[in-house]
Amino acid sequence: APESSGLEISLNGEPLGTFTFDPEKAGGVSVDIPVNRAMFLTDNRLSFRFTSGAGTECDEALDATHWTVIS
User: Fold this and answer.
1) Residues in a beta bridge with 9
2) For residue 1, what are the CA distances in angstroms to 33, 44, 47, 52, 53?
3) pLDDT by residue (tens digit) across 3-52?
4) What is the rounded distance in angstroms from the CA atom of residue 40 to the CA atom of residue 55?
5) Which secondary-structure segment (H or E) carries 10?
6) Is the pTM value of this prediction over 0.90?
């Protein structure tokens, strides 16, 4: 189910936040994430991990209703 889908964001392996997708806001949402300066290194890795509640119901990878856009 879409309400069990979400996004986990990490910087250099340290979690910054976990967000659950709200089907009522499927048109888009902005999120500000405060980051402590001490977390930044010379080389940084920003990671996104998606969790999908679609399970085996999702047959169509090209179906835009299952996409997430990060900009």
Assistant:
1) 17, 48
2) 26, 33, 24, 8, 5
3) 578 889 999 999 999 988 877 877 777 888 999 999 999 999 999 998 87
4) 35
5) strand 6-11
6) no
